[in-house]
Amino acid sequence: MKLTNALTVDVEDYFQVSAFEHSIHRSDWDNLEHRIAQNMSKVLQLFADQEIKATFFMLSWIAERYPSMVNDIICQGHELASHGHGHQRVTDLTREEFRQDIVRAKSTLEDLGGVPVRGYRAPSYSIGESNIWALEILAEAGYEYSSSIYPVKHDHYGFPKAPRFVFRDTKTGIIEVPITTVKFMNKTLPAGGGGFFRFYPYAISRWIINRVNTFDQQPAVFYFHPWELDPDQPRQRNTSLKSRFRHYLNLHKSEARLKRLIGDFNWGRMDEVFIDGHPIPEFQLT
After folding, report:
1. CB distance 221 to 6 below 8 Å
2. N or C: which end of the chain has fewer CB within 10 A?
């Protein structure tokens, strides 16, 4: 019997990504072309066609401007979760700024959606060894789980010492569901989606998830952004070549690859795959 993996969407628009944070000012966000509504419609229709339920980690900045989107997510049976408010990396925030961000996001999403918001995902997976205090604040704010740690080495994020699979932090009680990685030649490699899904040939992505399911006997966590299905989005020129390469690579292939992935594996919501009714090992991060 195939394992059910968790399918997740980080609900943010193309201009909100961390790669553009130094070239697109937050004060200009409302003046730019918004493409989130049309891209989310595409995502929701794809999931409806395949009868798949997923978890949407949503910026409350988006929710405030598109409240009907929140309703669509819930009415179609998906899980509504928090991506914070303004897509600021946790590493760039003080403890109090982080608290204000996640409390505002949870309150806004719950008010608009009328359902509890249990999960949180940090922008750019920016909870790591240097700011593990964030889990304590998440617990105090009423979140039950996080999917904010990527147990790899990367230039923008990573916590290599963290467990590769779901665990409960013994100090805070928060359940952490790390983004999926794969062990290959004694190295831990990113395998959870995003830019790596666009970079790897599809056969490699399929092999990775299959290996996690069969060799590790664990569900995988896959994520993508609605803008990754939008090759016609406005192009940013005032940013580094590296950032442009990462952001625009193979956007024209993403939708077809995602459809293949959805058909090749079983998928479900984060809360149903990892949280409700499942034994969760404990681990002390600090």
Report:
1. yes
2. N
Both tokens assigned to 184: 């290959």
Integer angstrom CA distances of residue 162 from 149, 150, 180, 220: 8, 8, 12, 16
User: At 194, is the secondary structure helix, strand, or coil?
Assistant: coil
Domain-wise residue ranges, the chain? 4-283
CB 269 within 8 A of CB 55: yes
pTM of model > 0.85: yes
The β-bridge relationship of strands 167-169 and 145-146 is unpaired
Q: Distance between CA atoms of 179 and 220, rounded to whole angstroms?
A: 8
Predicted confidence (pLDDT) per residue in 49-84, tens digit: 999 999 999 999 999 999 999 999 999 999 999 999
Fold held by 4-283: TIM Barrel (3.20.20)
